[in-house]
Specification:
The protein is of the alpha/beta class and 419 residues long. The chain is 43% helix and 15% strand. It has 14 helices and 13 strands. β1 (8-13), α1 (23-38) and β2 (40-47) form a beta-alpha-beta unit. The protein is globular. It starts with 7 loop residues before the first strand and ends in a 13-residue tail after the last helix.
Length: 419
């Protein structure tokens, strides 16, 4: 088959998959890279600023069909306005705030000629641009998380009364939309068997769920030479994402004091883009805490790490940051929610703790016993090498595509999807 005979894929991206500075971008980038091996891919993606468009350059070789970006405006004032507006309209905020006319027009223009065999819907929010079905192309939803589950869990864990009230209003609407989208598309890719089971439990009629896990670039994230003298607890994650913010505030308020009492010279390093003021304030008020913000290459930072902490209490899907940390042979301490979707074993290749006492105890042990951390890290590296390489996972992804294109199972055109 020549290059011009490759089936064409329209990749609708909620985030421009470059630079690789967040779990969702990393997943999308490697998915795009693998699809480009077998298909002619056109990328149509949101960007959050005009400056972000410069990051399309490294993606051009992967997108033989071209790249088009659409600007989406985000601000606190707009979020408040959208939250109030969509509440009155009884629509999901998570979906409705990303309804952009320019993106709708761009999708219609692309699909008008009927040239694509597949539309790859990267994140649930992008489904609104092709549903009700407006194309003969097969629709594949790449479902990074069970989105409604994240909001439902936030309603149970957040300390903010306002956030709890709004989350309880939001998650049922989001869940209804989420399930209707899953019914309307041809295939749903989940990042874990747990996510597939959750969706099937909510909608037993769903027969189009296929788990394809997230992978890790083991050549890039190689074991780092960690200092045995390290007293640093390392956290990495986008620090304006509410579940990450809530988890770090919970850790600092309920877990960290116990650790400091046992290991007075302990330090907490919070790394990740766009830290909100609540997180920045920790460093201003406590000299043992550092908030590093965005770091282009986290590997040098990982050398000073006695324990990689993931105190997540709400969320869904798989944590790319855990796979990356494991690939670097870092000892990870995570909640059960944080490690969901990863076939890790407590006390073998990861340490799992859900209560403040348990989480503190595991961190203290690693701070006092660096050799234990080395053992856990080595086992973690072995796990990702054997089960989470992008090469193996890419084969699973292409197998799903082959099945969908050869055996289409499209629901009737015009399936109504509520928002």
């Amino acid at each position: 088959m020549t290059e011009t005979q490759k089936p064409r894929v329209l990749f609708l991206a909620h985030l421009l998959p470059y630079p690789l500075d967040g779990g969702a971008k990393i997943k999308s980038y490697y998915t795009l890279r693998k699809l480009a091996e077998a298909y002619e891919v056109t990328l149509l993606a949101f960007v959050r600023s005009e400056d972000e468009k410069r990051h399309t350059a490294p993606l051009r070789d992967l997108c033989a069909g071209g790249i088009e970006t659409v600007l989406i405006r985000r601000s606190r004032i707009k979020n408040v306005w959208d939250a109030a507006r969509l509440l009155l309209l009884r629509r999901s905020f998570i979906v409705g705030r990303d309804q952009v006319g320019a993106m709708a027009r761009a999708v219609r223009a692309r699909l008008g000629g009927g040239r694509y065999g597949v539309v790859h819907i990267d994140h649930l929010q992008m489904a609104q641009y092709v549903l009700p079905r407006r194309t003969a192309a097969e629709l594949i939803l790449d479902h990074h998380n069970v989105e409604s589950q994240i909001i439902e869990r936030m309603a149970d864990t957040t300390q903010s009364r306002a956030m709890r009230w709004y989350a309880n209003k939001e998650w049922p609407k989001l869940q209804r939309y989420e399930l209707e989208v899953c019914r309307a598309v041809d295939q749903v890719l989940t990042v874990s068997a747990e996510d597939a089971r959750t969706l099937h439990r909510l909608a037993p009629d769903l027969k189009n769920l296929t788990p394809v896990p997230i992978g890790v670039d083991g050549d890039y994230f190689r074991p780092v030479p960690r200092s045995s003298e390290s007293r640093t607890l390392l956290s990495i994650g986008t620090m304006d994402w509410p579940p990450n913010v809530e988890s770090l505030l919970w850790f600092y308020g309920s877990v960290y004091p116990q650790i400091r009492a046992a290991v007075p010279d302990v330090k907490l390093n919070i790394v990740g883009a766009d830290p909100v003021d609540k997180i920045r304030r920790l460093a201003r008020e406590d000299k043992s805490v550092s908030v590093s913000g965005y770091v282009q290459d986290v590997r040098p930072t990982a050398a000073d790490c006695a324990a990689f902490i993931v105190p997540l209490r709400s969320g869904s899907g798989m944590r790319v940051k855990i796979l990356n940390a494991m690939a670097m042979a870092l000892p990870v301490v995570s909640t059960t929610v944080g490690v969901e979707g990863i076939a890790a074993t407590h006390r073998k290749d990861i340490l799992v703790a859900d209560t403040p006492d348990e989480f503190a105890r595991e961190c203290i042990r690693l701070l006092r016993d660096p050799e234990r951390g080395t053992e856990i890290g080595a086992a973690a590296r072995k796990l990702v090498e054997e089960h989470y390489s992008w090469e193996a996972i890419g084969k699973e992804l292409l197998a799903v595509y082959d099945h969908v294109l050869q055996q289409p199972s499209r629901p009737p055109a015009g399936v109504k999807v509520a928002r």
